[in-house]
Amino acid sequence: MAAAVRLLSGASRSRCRLSSPSCSQHRSLSTGLRLLARPRPFPLLIVTGGCYLGYQQYKRRGQQDEEAAPHLATPTQVALYRTFPTRLVSRAWGRLNGLDLPTWLRKPIYSLYIWTFGVNMQEAAVEDLHHYKNLGEFFRRRLKPAVRPVCAASCLTSPADGKILHFGRVKNSEVEQVKGVTYSLESFLGPQTSRGSDPSSSSFQEHLLSSPDTELFHVVVYLAPGDYHCFHSPTDWKVELRRHFPGSLMSVNPGVARWVKELFCLNERVVLSGQWQHGFFSLTAVGATNVGSIRVYFDQELRTNTPRYSQGSFHDRSYVAVGNQVKSATGEGGVALHKGEPVGEFNLGSTIVLLFEAPRDFSFSLQPGQRIRMGEGLGSL
User: Fold this and answer.
1) What is the pLDDT of residues 295-320, one digit of tens each?
2) For 132-158, what is each residue's pLDDT tens digit?
3) 283, exposed or middle or buried, with CB in 10 Å at 0-12, 13-18, 19+?
4) 310 part of the active site
5) Is residue 161 flagged as an active site residue?
6) Which residue among the candidates 166, 207, 229, 232 is catalytic per the annotation?
7) Is 211 a known active-site residue?
8) Against a cut of 0.90, is the pTM above it?
């Protein structure tokens, strides 16, 4: 009997030894699942801290580039840059932004973004971070109406929060995207319809002007990732035409804008053009890397960053407003916009370019590189 007991005990120990690897794997799997089920803030902080330091270095490099003389990229360098799949990456980023985050993860992710880019959530219409289901909703957050008053004394106000890259008069049909780096007015806006004069007998710039007593002016506003991402009407005007240029989605960071000539002409952009009280007026939303989505609220047909496009092509749509409906038209008409009225939004941050006709005594009340908010005055007569 004792021998039988010893035999059974030995068999039991053998089974335990044979099964120990499986038990160990089971315990490891259970431990791994528990680790996945609860957040691990320390590794997350290490990774995101590295990203933050990288962004700060990138920002400092951009500031240094602004102070140095512009060093333009060669055509080969630009062509190589344009081969990068920035449009594909931007579409993937857009899909990622649309994925709903678990409730427990929203506050850590958004808090990190707020800390990195200096977002002021006290201005947001909804300050509770759990309210925003995904990054896209957070990027496109609305503001409290009172935090962006529209300057009544100025005939022209900033269309967005951002940084003034450049402003001034347009000379010889060339526009400065940053100091010392220009692009062609015609390449940026595309061919214009005749205003009763022969375009071949005058410069493209003169062709846009409605009076010999006026001049053409421009303002460039750069929206950083932490800025409010909607853009508004800078004045009372009427939009007559939307022209969509599919194109590249290169970065529009000031450092890159000083490096790539005609960057704004190469990137995808949406030009809204029409008339204000002094003549020609246009607002252009320029896309950038991870900003594949440009939305215009009154134009539901607009689709940006589509998978296929013909290089150098553009798509026109004329507007006429009938009540609350907007439809295509070939005759007179347009969409009336009031100063400060919401016009559209970016999916992240990018650039707004204003080109407008005004009397010669128009003067800007700006400084290069200054921070500006939507609704603040740009200049006066």
Assistant:
1) 999 998 998 888 777 777 889 998 86
2) 998 888 988 899 988 999 999 999 999
3) buried
4) no
5) yes
6) 232
7) no
8) no
